[in-house]
Specification:
heterodimer, A: alpha/beta, Rossmann fold, 6-stranded mixed beta sheet, 4-stranded antiparallel beta sheet, 7 helices, 10 strands, 31% helix, 28% strand, globular, B: alpha+beta, 4 domains, 6-stranded mixed barrel, 50% helix, 20% strand
């Protein structure tokens, strides 16, 4: 589903060249729940940006769903994001002037054919009673669930989540993880970026980055845990 | 804490938003510039008027003998010279004429006036001549054909000193000088007709003027200066008494310096223009204040967490407020400095425009510092007040609320709930702009008001042109609804209608002997004054008498009443101002012939039998049956003719030019050409105003749009992250701007209409009292305002496309605040 071949990303910061990703190659299958783990500055967010075609690699090739996005034109990347990947952000990034339902409907309208219904999707994340509330009327966990519903409503096969529990308390964070895990079970490819090692315990696969390189790639240490076993 | 630290910090804030800062500063600059640059125009125009009138010794009092009356120079001099309070008296002879200003390519026979002045003893002593080119008249010119011409006419018709000027009767005059005289600083044919450049005022010696009309020794006009401290009204009363005593059969009318049409025009215009420019400047400054409010509001919002951190660190509130306030001060000072420079430029531009339009001999164009100081204070204070509000609000929140990160702050949807249940059309990204407008209601409202200010100015100015055009159109329609090609031939005196002179004139042929006229008609043209005891003022009118309606070349269209031989037809405006209606009785003061060259003024009561549709108040009409009341039964001084097919008004003018008994020849078409020329000049000025106003609307919209983009940068990045194309995001912003622009434009048009009404009502009452203005904003103006206002505002997001294209989406998405 997602293939990276010798991907590097370097930034020019004044006179200094910073290597964010260094010759990374990997393959992620459909329906995998993958956690990318690493400390701050390890390159995990850069990896997410490259996979979502928000950024382009300095070297290497990225093929997603059979399409080489490194060769794509700007408008093709917009279409790719519209039809292939969906985002979940740490800070939710909901539209404050839209209700929960409208935020999700926004994604549905944008996706066009292939999208799911906004109301059923909100119901599926447990917000059936809160559809007409504005973001500021919702708790952090509820806002993130709206954000997940927005991502799910597109019907896109890949979910990209950047520190999705970073702003949430433990209890709410667990709920969000359950939601994401259920999406992988349902056949979506879920890629979660986090610095929280505890979260990686529930993943099918953990890719650990350090200084832009993959330092480990495999099942979680000690085997996959149940969400109920998590604590942080 | 040191001031330098805060200054540096706030200066960095300023630099971070330099484009918006420049936009707001430019709006402040336009307001301050107009206020300071044009704020002093009344003062320097009045100072220039005063100095010019003083240098050329403008009269304090003028006496005009009744139409057709002449008195002997010596008799009048002797009667008036010893009147208490009179310092100097000058006798003059003023008669209409036709001036040939034709060039090799163009035949120009312009209406004009011969002003015979006493050139002896360095005269004229009163209402002197100022030679801009050549020389003034001297005693050596007495009785000669030397003449001095008003300079604007000379310039517009390329007449120069040394040229020969031909006037009615085909008389040649030698041009020895061109320049000004105080009664003609701004040439007006009468109180409601402007003649700058098209009406010739030719000064000759008194003897020459007398010779030109074959009436040696006569005068029909006298001007007076009064001794210091003398009451002009008392002097006038003494002169009237003396005239009554010495010349009981000769009537006279009087006007003071302040009642002189040109004098009144120059001073009233300066006063009204000042009120207009002050209003314009204030609207600009209000627009600037709204812009500053939006900008500082956004800046304060972006500094919210920093303010919270400051609170947490224990920094006193007034210091926390200091930083954003300093930004406000810096914007205001920057804008005001621009404005003062711009103001100087405006004042110079305006001054040079006036110098070319009104050739006063003295212009005192000084920098009027009080206006600059007032402009600077306003330019700083208004934006500062606008800054205070968001700053005050920001420093009053609790530190915990202020320090909270963006997504946890309870930023509501503003009033977007209002439209939440409305069935809005389209998909969610079509509906989103509607909600965004209501999401930040204050900003939307102030942006809308700013745009409304700009459109108010636009519709007010263009509406004034529309009203002017509509009024002129109505006048043109009134004049031209029939007899479109008619020509008025005004005779130099009253002649029996069956006299040889009149019949010869009626029988005038073309050079080949063929007929020239399809139709001819005789009439009378006289000055008069309408009076009604209950009204505040009397109204001077130009009275025309025609013989019934049956064979007439032209008769006025009546809006009420009928053409009847037993009454008078007046304008709707005159009826309104005098408080009379059809059927009421009104008093007409008019000349009545008492003997050869002697007319006294008498009052006769007439029934108002009709109201005509001409917006010019001073026009009144009667049937020739009433000529007996004027002692002019069977007499005429007006010949109305229409040319046969193939002949034009120039042919007629040329045919009459050399004939005796003809004072002037006017084609009715020349009036409409004069209207069109006036409109053309006005339209040019308005084009500049339009440009400035559209620029202001753009600046306000630009300011608002860039603030919106800054504020919603994460939302935009989210949309991009979800694959929403740039064109869709831009379209959403354009729709949002379009909504604000549309509401702002409609409010602006409404406000413009109200201001226009107020403006025209005041102007009509104070200055242009002889016009009945049709107050109108034309459909085309509304369409133009909407197109300019809405399009300018709606298209502004296009300017921000580059910023969105260059957006670093990942970084933006991760930004906490």
């Amino acid at each position: 589903m997602i293939t990276l071949e010798h991907v590097s990303k370097r930034y020019q910061m004044g006179d200094v060249v910073v290597t964010a990703l260094d010759d990374v190659s990997l393959h992620i299958n459909r329906g995998e729940f993958v956690v990318v783990l690493g400390p701050s500055g390890s390159g995990k967010t850069t990896l997410l940006n490259l996979i979502s075609a928000l950024d382009t690699p300095t070297n290497g090739r990225i093929v997603i769903a059979g399409k080489d996005i490194t060769q794509a034109k700007r408008f093709e990347n917009f279409r790719f994001r519209r039809e292939t990947v969906s985002f979940i952000f740490q800070t939710f990034n909901l539209f404050p002037s839209l209700t929960a339902l409208e935020n999700v409907q926004f994604a549905v309208d944008m996706r066009g054919n292939g999208a799911n219904g906004a109301v059923p999707t909100l119901q599926s994340v447990g917000l059936g009673e809160r559809v007409n509330h504005f973001p500021h009327e919702l708790s952090g966990g509820e806002q993130q669930r709206v954000a997940i519903a927005r991502a799910l409503a597109t019907g896109n096969p890949i979910l990209l989540a950047d520190e999705p529990t970073g702003e949430l308390d433990f209890r709410t964070g667990v709920q969000i993880l359950e939601l994401l895990q259920s999406q992988a079970t349902a056949g979506k490819t879920v890629l979660v970026v986090t610095h929280n090692r505890e979260i990686s315990r529930v993943a099918d696969r953990v890719i650990e980055l350090s200084s832009g390189k993959i330092v480990s790639d495999g099942v979680p240490q000690g085997g996959k845990a149940a969400i109920a076993d998590l604590h942080w | 804490m040191k001031l330098g630290f805060w200054l540096r910090w706030s200066w960095r804030d300023l630099k971070a938003r330099w484009l918006q800062v420049v936009a707001v500063a430019l709006i402040i600059a336009l307001g301050t510039g107009i206020y300071s640059g044009l704020g002093g125009q009344r003062s320097w125009r009045e100072a220039s008027n005063d100095a010019s009138y003083s240098q050329l010794n403008m009269y304090d009092l003028q006496m005009k003998l009744a139409d057709g009356s002449y008195l002997d120079y010596s008799d009048l001099q002797e009667a008036l010279v010893d009147i208490e309070g009179v310092e100097t008296v000058d006798m003059r002879l003023i008669v209409p004429t036709l001036v040939d200003a034709s060039t090799a390519d163009d035949t120009v026979l312009a209406s004009g006036r011969i002003v015979g002045v006493d050139v002896h003893n360095d005269g004229p002593q009163i209402a002197k001549l100022y030679a801009a080119d050549g020389r003034s008249l001297t005693s050596a010119d007495a009785g000669t054909s030397n003449a001095f011409l008003e300079s604007q006419f000379a310039e517009d018709n390329s007449l120069q000193v040394g040229d020969t000027l031909r006037i009615t009767g085909d008389v040649a005059l030698n041009l020895v000088g061109t320049g000004q005289s105080p009664e003609y600083f701004y040439v007006m044919v009468d109180s409601s007709t402007f003649g700058l450049g098209s009406f010739a005022v030719v000064f000759v010696s008194l003897e020459t003027a007398q010779s030109l009309i074959n009436r040696p020794g006569v005068v029909n006009n006298a001007v007076f200066t009064t001794r210091a401290g003398a009451d002009v009204a008392v002097v006038q009363a003494a002169i009237e008494a003396r005239m009554q005593e010495r010349f009981p059969t000769v009537g006279a009318t009087f006007n003071t310096k302040d009642e002189d049409a040109v004098h009144k025009q120059l001073y009233d215009d300066a006063k009204n223009d000042q009120a207009t420019w002050d209003l314009v400047a204030m609207l600009f400054l209000l627009g600037a204040a709204f812009g500053t409010f939006n900008l500082t509001g956004r800046m304060v919002e972006s500094q919210r967490r920093q303010i919270g951190i400051g609170m947490a660190l224990g920094v006193p509130r007034h210091w926390l407020a200091f930083r954003p306030l300093l930004v406000g001060v810096q914007i205001a000072v920057l804008g005001t400095l621009f404005g003062l420079i711009l103001g100087y430029g405006f004042s110079q531009l305006f001054a040079s425009l006036f110098k070319s339009l009104i050739p006063l001999p003295i212009w005192k164009i000084d920098l009027y510092w009080p206006a600059y100081i007032r402009g600077a204070v306003l330019g700083i204070v208004l934006p500062m007040v606008a800054t205070l509000i968001p700053v005050f609000r920001a420093v009053r929140v609790s530190p915990l609320d202020a320090i909270r990160s963006g997504n946890l702050v309870g930023k509501g949807g503003g009033l977007s709930w209002v439209v939440n249940r409305l069935p809005l059309p389209g998909k969610s990204f079509t509906q989103m702009p509607f909600k965004n407008v209501l999401r930040a209601p204050w900003r939307s409202f102030l942006t809308m008001l700013g745009i409304a200010m700009a459109i108010t100015l636009l519709s007010m100015f263009v509406g004034f042109l529309d009203s002017f055009v509509a009024t002129m159109d109505q006048a043109e329609k009134a004049y031209l609804h029939e007899g479109k090609d008619r020509v008025w031939v005004i005779l130099d005196y009253f002649y029996p209608t069956d006299s040889t002179l009149v019949t010869d004139l009626e029988a005038t042929t073309q050079p080949d002997g063929s007929s020239l006229f399809a139709q001819t008609e005789t009439g009378l043209m006289l000055g008069g004054t309408l009076k009604n005891g209950n009204a505040d003022e009397d109204i001077e009118v130009s009275l025309e008498l025609y013989d019934g309606v049956a064979e007439g070349i032209w008769r006025p269209t009546l809006t009420e009443g009928r053409w009847a031989s037993d009454g008078i037809i007046i304008s709707q405006k005159a009826a309104k101002d005098l408080g009379v209606e059809v059927g009421d009785t009104i008093t007409l003061e008019h000349p009545k012939r008492e003997g050869p060259l002697a007319f006294r003024l008498t009052e006769t009561a007439y029934t108002v039998v009709g109201l005509h549709d001409n917006p010019l108040r001073a026009l009144a009409y009667m049937d020739m049956a009433n000529a007996g009341d004027m002692g002019l039964a069977g007499e005429t001084n007006l010949l109305v003719v229409t040319p046969i097919n193939g002949a034009d008004s120039d042919t007629i003018k040329q045919a009459f030019f050399a004939q005796s008994g003809v004072a002037s020849v006017d084609a009715i078409n020349d009036i409409s050409e004069g209207f069109n020329e006036a409109i053309k000049i006005f339209a040019q000025v308005l084009t500049v105003v339009q440009g400035i106003v559209v620029f202001m609307a753009f600046l306000i919209a630009f300011n608002s749009t860039t603030i919106n983009i800054d504020e919603r940068v994460r939302e935009i990045a989210t949309m991009f992250a979800f694959g929403l194309p740039l064109r869709t995001v831009t379209r959403m912003q354009m729709l949002e701007n379009l909504l604000i622009g549309l509401v702002g434009t409609l409010v602006g048009i409404l406000l413009g209409w109200l201001v226009l009404n107020q403006f025209l009502t005041v102007r009509v009452e104070e200055q242009l009292e002889d016009f009945q203005f049709v107050i109108r904003i034309a459909p085309m103006t509304i369409i133009t305002s909407i197109v300019l206002g809405v399009l300018t505002v709606a298209l502004t997001p296009l300017v921000s496309i580059r910023k969105m294209v260059k957006m670093d989406i990942p970084s933006t998405l991760r930004v906490m605040e």
